[in-house]
Protein: DUF1501 domain-containing protein
Organism: Lignipirellula cremea
Amino acid sequence: MLTIPAGKTSRYCDGRSRRDFLQIGMAGLGSVGLSSLLRAKAAAKEGGASSKDTSVILLWLDGGVSQHDTYDPKPTAPPEYRGIWGAQSTNVPGTQISEMFPLQAKIADKFSILRSMHHNNGDHFAGGHHMLTGRGGASGADRTAKFPFFGAIATKVLGSRQTGLPANVAIPSAMSIGLRPGFFGGHYLGAENDPFDVGSDPSRDNFRVKNLSLDSSVTIDRLADRRNLLNQFDKLRRDVDNRGSLDAIDEFDRQAYHMVTDDRAQKAFDIAAEDDKMRDRYGRHSWGQSALLARRLVEAGSTFVTCHFGGWDSHWNHEGRMHTTLPQVDQIVSALITDLEDRGRLDSTMVIVMSEFGRTPKMNDGGNGGPPLSKGTPGRDHWGNAMSVLVAGGGIQGGQVVGSTNRLGETPLDRPLRPGDLHHTVFKVLGVDPNLHFNDMAGRPIIAIDHGDVIDELF
């Protein structure tokens, strides 16, 4: 087992530290047999997956992002609801977003906004589990994942778009609400379907991807010899294995071998090869360089890349925190979408910006249960009844606003959307059959997505 310390980080409102450890082990491997995987791949092929070359970049805003202060401003609501910032018009007539997003306002015709997403749960862990797995089950009292990440299901079926690249990647780390890999894990699909955790900040001058290079004492020839020897043992073991339970281990070994011996991965992760102007365009900080690295990876052949942007749990001092984070997101989303379009990759790369829930429509008094302003200036609390999600690329039409919330931004007014609707839409973009079944830990077949449908307006 490999353990990598994550360093010092802040805490969530429930007291859980974001400091956690990446643990890569073999627990859970082999929970899905070869026959199940082959059926899934065959079904995906019949559904057109083999003809697609699409990928997804998910910008995960960990902690909960206010819909009012981003993509669903309420300029006519009372001051305590509409918040600190005003609304601005975009290049799409009739569509407004926060005045903190001037760069995105210029390219609103390139993305669409889902304003009526909801799951009605204000618990960080329940909300994250809903958005990332499509199902309930986790909570602050029980933070363990119950189902696999929807991106892990997709990459389980599709693999990478190019040999030598990891199919499912997380930058700078695979983390959801302080848990690694948390709700980004493969769960009953097997640990080999967890994201490849980069484990390092790509904005650092000494950025280096762990586990992507050999120890100095190991040569490629020695590695090949060892692999050949293991293959001989595998053949002997397979003679007595009637269920294909070793195939997951084989897949994990194959991916690791290709990544170390094929220079495609080495080149894709070499963010220093990017032009300085391009690096500046995304922002010379962890979030910006993570998004740029994500673009490099999907361009090279990764299928699903998640960027973790933490620090959105703004119960107090909301204004100060948003003055830092919102401009960074504005810069990143604008740079990523325009960069993909300039490189001819936007039609084949879906971009998603989302978090576990929204924030309360009405701002609080900064007391968090104590006297007003005792914790700081006013903020917003947890709100799972309405949130906004940005989607772009991958064949999705830009300039659309799907769904709406009521006058105060409390609940969906029309076209209510749930996480499963988004997941169906992502599977359509990637070419994955949402009706596939995978066996859980008890051997029971579980459907990939258990509710919702494709958001047709986007196409």
Q: What stands out?
A: The chain has one domain: 2-10+19-458. The first helix runs from residue 34 to 46. The CA atoms of residues 79 and 362 lie 9 Å apart. Confidence is low (pLDDT under 50) at residues 1-9, 18-35, 236-249.
